[in-house]
Amino acid sequence: MNKSIFTTATILSLLSVLTVACGQVSNSPVKLKVQLITDNLASLTSFAEPKDQSGRLFICEQEGRIRIIKKGVLLPTPFLDIKEDVLKREGSDERGLLGLAFHPNYAKNHKYYIYYSSRISKTAGVDHHSIVKEFTASGQNPDLTDMKSGKVVLEFDEPQANHNGGDIKFGPDGFLYIAVGDGGGGDDRHGDIGNGQNLNTLLGKILRIDVNTAPYVIPKDNPFVGRENTKAEIYAYGLRNPWRISFDKVNGRLFTGDVGQNAWEEVDIITKGGNYGWRVREGLHENSKFNGDPTPKNPIEPITDYAHKEGISITGGFVYRGKKIPALVGKYLFADWMGPLWTLTDTKKPQWLREKLSISKDAGYWQITSFGEDQAGELYLITAMLESGKGALYKIVAER
Q1: What is the pLDDT of residue 339?
Q2: Above 50 in pLDDT, residue 101?
Q3: Distance CA 371, CA 398 (A)
């Protein structure tokens, strides 16, 4: 996310401008509204529901807690509280507890995984470490974590505070996919070609690992296995700050919203070994600041991009595969951090059809920080409410 420079007053002013700008986008005929699940939360980042038939919804608070919503009620005791281990300053910050994924076999092994920014830095000259860690739920109380079970799976340096990515998801192949930003700052000014294009760093990538053998192993068909001076964990590269990834429940395609620099936001379909162009390209456009960089071979173009007259920081979403809103089925739903929501429809062309959604809500201005998907394929909005300062979770439903 690129958000720390914005005050509430600035955001409210921008919202009025964006409302006018977005009028130029075609409107979706689908009419939606939101149902408040809870607004008694703070700084929300990630959402997951395990395949354990419990119906519990789990949501991450950026400061380092995972909360449970059980039978519609927010439980007072966190499922996990590692606030003392998580680095997040007061106010706006891109560090923190950023990702949550339950093991596909959670109903039996009770394992889950988180991605967070660590307070403890083991390397001089870097801002912090990003850690992927495994935990196991308590055998005595499934609404609590066994705190002694924590095991570090993967750990790496982050040179600056922003562009951490941080989303994690299990793919249909059973492997864990990890979205990692380019290391922060502006324009990926790391080394001669930037981290996004450097295959000898994990930064600016989508990673894929097998966590079924501790701490992890590299899948044999990862695209860069055996290549010299290349990290074998890499599944795809050339990304700036992939903010939220998701798999289509039907066909397994992997989507991400990649946050732009100063001009363009984009949605990409991630393919094995794919190069998405950053820092040489931003969206469908060349980045004139780096004309001297090597030209990426066959960079994969986004399925949509939009200029900063329509938003300032993309929030990737999900392809809707639920049953409650038939008109949305098969459409990719995503948003901008400033509030607009859109759908993308596959028209068998390189760029998908983008339409602005109409969503009725009783709440005031919000920032959309993430999306959630439950086991039934229904979608949720994870938001920050500007007036109250609270984090709120909404379910997206049809307007009747």
Answers
A1: 83
A2: yes
A3: 17
Distance of CA 51 to the CA centre of its chain: 20
CATH number at residue 81: 2.120.10.30
Confidence at residue 78, expressed as pLDDT on a 0 to 100 scale: 98
Tell whether 3 is covered by a domain. no
CA dihedral 159, 334, 37, 104 (to 10 degrees): -70
Name which of 27, 44, 58, 41 is nearest 337 in CA terms.
44
pLDDT at position 364 is: 59
Whether 1 maps to a domain, the answer reads: no
Dihedral angle sign, alpha carbons of residues 298, 315, 44, 62 = positive
Would you mind telling me the total number of residues written for the chain in this entry?
400
Instruction: Report yes or no on 286 lying in a domain.
Output: yes
pLDDT tens, 16-39?
Answer: 445 444 445 789 999 999 999 999
- For residue 162, give the 3-state DSSP assignment: coil
Look up the pTM and report it: 0.94
Which range marks the domain in which residue 168 is found?
8-398
Q: Is residue 293 part of a domain?
A: yes
> For the chain, what is the domain count?
1
